[in-house]
Specification:
Elements (H helix, E strand, L loop, with lengths): L3 H73 L6 H24 L10 H5 L1 H19 L10 H28 L3 H33 L4 H25 L6 H31 L7 H74 L10 H4 L23
Length: 399
């Protein structure tokens, strides 16, 4: 026969064990989503930082690249650049210089190059070299070709290209990291990349037109190159418009695409096409080169704005996911805290209201309470007060 003491210990321990197991299961079930929330929050913060760095790099890349072509063409031309033209280049430089400095700062914190460490490591020296040659370029653009030192245009183009190539590789690395976040971000980055390719085609074709202006005509090789660049920009732009036509694309991205289409493929095209045809035919152009550049700059900026808006939208998307993860983390943490408090309170209640009474009921003393004559016959208490009674039975626990 199982002793009552052993039975009491077994029942109490069993109840406490079952309750503790249920509490641990509840805590575990709530801890899993908390872990997922922490991972999502950390990932969103990482993507947000990368997208922010990517936008900084892209801004520096765009403005430096826009400055390169017209500056080189002007340095190769016989005549000095006009004041308005030079002022426009200075405006571009005023944007590019702080943007490049921001890249140096931002990419010192965020990994912008992956395994290709030399790209970022050599960027400060490359930027310094470009800044140094700009000091020579600025007065040279205001002087005729005969007063400029030989190979100045070539040296400037090489220095600017080195900076641009480094920035472009960094932009590609950052874009690829952001693209891997999720499907929506991947589509936004696809829009960004295609818009940049379209802008690249328009900008490079403008450079070919500048070379043709200096040559007073367009050779067959120039015509072929300009035609290919224009075709590339038109094909990639058609893909951008198809992507933006899908449901769910942010309104600011769709609006930027509409604006860029009007400026780059309508307004600028009305100036570019007659100039291209005149140069190809060896005839005087209806529009001077500086006016072509001034007309193309808004088009290039509008195409760049599409890429920038797409990157900004990707950053906003990552920030929204981070905020959602923070809200979920708070909610699940509160649930976990509530579950722990309720569980501990329930454990105490079970101990006091269940296991303790069971222990009392099943103990050797619990079955036989203390008996007195007063408790048995309260009505005869006075009459029999002096009568001898046996000693009341008392419980004694076995040794």
């Amino acid at each position: 026969m199982i002793s009552s003491t052993r039975l009491t210990l077994t029942i109490g321990a069993l109840l406490r064990t079952l309750f503790a197991v249920m509490l641990m299961l509840v805590v575990g079930a709530l801890a899993l989503p908390i872990y997922g929330d922490l991972q999502q929050k950390a990932e969103s913060e990482r993507i947000t930082g990368i997208a922010r760095a990517g936008l900084t790099v892209f801004t520096a890349l765009q403005n430096t690249r826009t400055e390169r072509g017209p500056t080189r063409t002007t340095l190769e031309g016989k005549e000095p650049g006009s004041q308005s033209f030079i002022a426009g280049l200075m405006a571009l430089r005023a944007k590019s210089e702080p943007a490049v400095l921001a890249v140096l700062e931002q990419c010192g914190v965020t990994d912008c190059v992956g395994e290709a460490r030399d790209i970022y490591a050599g960027l400060p020296a490359s930027v310094e070299k470009l800044a140094s040659i700009r000091k020579e370029v600025d007065p040279a653009m205001r002087a005729p070709l005969s007063e400029r030192r030989p190979n100045l245009a070539k040296d400037f183009n090489a220095a600017a290209t080195d900076v641009i190539d480094r920035l472009e590789k960094m932009s590609n690395v950052l874009g690829e990291k952001v693209r891997m976040a999720d499907a929506e971000t991947a589509e936004l980055m696809e829009i960004k990349q295609l818009a940049w390719l379209a802008r690249d085609g328009v900008g490079l074709e403008r450079t070919v037109l500048g070379d043709a202006f200096n040559a007073k005509g367009m050779s067959p090789a120039m015509q072929k190159k300009a035609t290919e660049l224009r075709a590339r920009s038109e094909v990639t732009w058609s893909l951008v418009r198809e992507l933006v036509a899908r449901p769910g694309v942010p309104d600011d991205v769709a609006s930027a695409v509409a604006t860029a289409h009007e400026l780059a493929f309508s307004t600028y095209e009305k100036i570019r096409k007659p100039v291209f045809e005149a140069l190809a035919a060896g005839q005087p152009t209806p529009t001077p080169y500086e006016d072509v550049v001034n007309a193309s700059n808004p088009a290039l900026e509008a195409l760049t704005a599409v890429a920038e808006n797409a990157m900004t939208a990707a950053q906003r998307h990552a920030e929204r996911k981070g905020d959602e993860a923070s809200r979920n983390l708070l909610f699940h943490s509160l649930l976990l805290g509530l579950a722990v408090v309720v569980g501990l309170a329930g454990f105490i209640v079970v101990h006091r209201r269940v296991t303790t009474p069971i222990a009392t009921m099943t103990s050797p003393c619990g079955a036989s309470p203390t008996v007195t004559r007063e408790s048995l016959f309260p009505a005869r208490r006075a009459a029999t007060r002096s009568a001898p009674w046996p000693r009341p039975w008392r419980c004694s626990k076995p040794a």
